[in-house]
Amino acid sequence: MENGGFVPFQFEEKTEDQMLASSKAFYEEMNRRRSVREFSDKPVSIEVIKNIIRSAGTAPSGAHKQPWSFCVVQDASIKSKIRAAAEQEEYENYHGRMSEEWLKDLEKFDTNHIKPFLEIAPYLIVVFKQAYNEDGSTRGRNYYVNESVGIAVGMLLAAIQNAGLVALTHTPSPMNFLAEILERPKNERAYLLIPVGYPVDECMVPDIERKKIEEICKVY
Question: pTM of this prediction?
Answer without folding.
Answer: 0.93
